[in-house]
Amino acid sequence: xxxxxxxxxxxxxxxxxxxxxxxxxxxxxxxxxxxxxxxxxxxxxxxxxxxxxxxxxxxxxxxxxxxxxxxxxxxxxxxxxxxxxxxxxxxxxxxxxxxxxxxxxxxxxxxxxxxxxxxxxxxxxxxxxxxxxxxxxxxxxxxxxxxxxxxxxxxxxxxxxxxxxxxxxxxxxxxxxxxxxxxxxxxxxxxxxxxxxxxxxxxxxxxxxxxxxxxxxxxxxxxxxxxxx
Length: 229
Ligand SMILES: [Ca+2]
Prior knowledge:
The chain is mainly beta. The protein has a single domain (39-228), classed as Galactose-binding lectin (Jelly Rolls), CATH 2.60.120. The protein contains two helices and eleven strands. The strands form two sheets. Strands 1, 3, 4, 6, 9 and 11 form a six-stranded antiparallel β-sheet that branches. It has a five-stranded antiparallel β-sheet with strand order 2-5-10-7-8. The chain starts with a helix and ends with a strand. The structure holds calcium ion. Residues 45-47, 86-87, 90, 92-93, 224 line the site of calcium ion.
């Protein structure tokens, strides 16, 4: 179809990219059973309006605010919803609203924040067949609390007690973010990235910023088209 449309034009450019099944980076050859031919995993598009991922292997989206250690103080909150419109021409996206505080003498973390989590409760996926986590997001900030400059993306493997991460810049307009597995780093010793990716079971998206006593951080994050490519 694309070729016919192209022939009808005087000048056109042909997309000559070849669709390929990603090869394992450990050099062991083709995909294993269960991932044969897989070039993409669509985790969620949020078009069904709930927190249940489109890929039924994943448990419902969860969120949490971390700070202080013993519950949220007055003025702090975190709420998760499905909002409209979504990214591009889509109808819906996930929306997380929050405000977190660091109180004087707070024993909690110096970087309070929020985390969105999507996980595989009953299985793992070998991400060595894939290249990146890709999602669309935008971040809005108003008021006197600090803005959060980056979103940290954490890929975990519970069986090894390890995780690997990188971050993307927050953007006020919808932007597609690509977090390549080859760029993930970890403070965990003794577990290679390839080994952890081979037993992938959760992705966390963390929005946090360092706060001094009495400071707060806030924002609204929209998330859409979460996939593994
Ligand atoms: Ca959507």
